[in-house]
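Bench notes, afternoon.
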Amino acid sequence: MDVSPNGGSPRAPSGERLGGFIYGTLVALAVLVASAKAYPHNAGRVVVLVAVTSSVLWLAHVYAHSVAKTVADKEHLTMAELRYIGHRERSIIEAAVPPVAALLLGVVGLISTSAAIWAALGAGLAVLAVQGLAVARVERLGTLATCVLIAANLGLGLVLIALKLLVTH
């Protein structure tokens, strides 16, 4: 069970992680779109850019939340609190795994770089749809509200893909 070091509700941390997954997925898709333009024939560079950007943003989030907690609590951060923040924010990195896995198919030559980039975009969209479904289930939304939520998540991803098409064609 995911519980905060100070005994908070298990639902709140899972919600915070979900927020990180959504953020991380959108970041991975944005970096994917930009790097695919810069390196349309080099899936390896695209993988590195997505993975490194996600890792750097994870570190920035851990740092920012750690500093904010220290200031808010007016006391030093314990190692348990730092580990908790790092674990909670790890979802930013985890969100990049499906697109990176798809890109790796291009790196090892199983599919073309172009196909790998489209597969990575598809993987990112699939993750966004699942994230919308997860929120809808937790909130016990009806069918229509669930569809609207999934559509909103997918809409953000599709805007990024539209930008890719606009920029690269």
